[in-house]
Task: structure prediction
Amino acid sequence: MEKLKISPCNLCPRECGAKRNAGEAGYCLMDDKIRVARADLHMWEEPCISGRKGSGTVFFSGCNLRCVYCQNYEIAAGGRGKEITIGQLSDIFLRLQEKGAANINLVTPDHYAIAVAKAVVWAKDKGLVIPVVYNGSGYEKPEAIMDLSGIVDIFLTDFKYMDENLAKKYSSAPDYPVVAQKALARMVEITGEASFDGNGMMKKGVIVRHLLLPGHKKNAKDVIRYVYETYGNQVFLSLMNQYTPLGRLKENPDYGELCRKVTRREYESVVDYAISLGVENAYIQEGDTAEESYIPEFWTNNDCSE
Result:
């Protein structure tokens, strides 16, 4: 990662130039200290990621997007988490493996990409053998993705928008569609065809997630069409209906359309569209998942990393 630097920071498409090693926070709201909000077995990912054992999930604090509907807002805004070293992060990976984790699942790691890559290498030198999952927003620099070759086995990536106006309004990132397309191309280049073990657990490959937003079937269908027409069934889709309206959105009239759940008819329309295109490799959610909590308890700085 010689061309990518944490200070002045150019790790993500924002290229904010923050002097993070001098304590200055980047657009991601983080300085150069690694901050982790949770590390534990997680059962709520796709079946080929969580399986029966659980995914060894590490939630990193901070984010380079500003999604107004973010369900993990308390950590994305940097308000929760514990500062750790690269060595401690490496040890966390190994402890999760000892607990029976199916994989190491890195959630929103892009603003720590250099440190995370080192931690994975150190852990592999000490016996880490399970797959490493890069669980990101899709708003990634292609060169940063390429530098993860040989480090990351699976990309579990969001593809939020094909509509730049929605990307600007909801995530303050009008360039999201272009950035996500380029990043996805590099992810597929690194992993190639997906492969699975005898228990149906993914060993390498790409899963593209799309969270359907209320009233935005067209955006969802545009994402599905782009991914399928570009990669066919080489990439797995995960179509999610778990959008949960947050109370704070009711305070802003600009986001009134987001103050409701996705209807069953909306979601079925999107799933039917995927089937009509010929999509075969896809995960869908059944029932009213918005009633369930997919948000774990996050650490404060006083919590331990066990």
Q: What stands out?
A: The longest helix spans residues 176-191. Residues 289-306 have pLDDT under 50 and may be disordered. The chain has nine helices and ten strands. The longest strand covers residues 202-211.
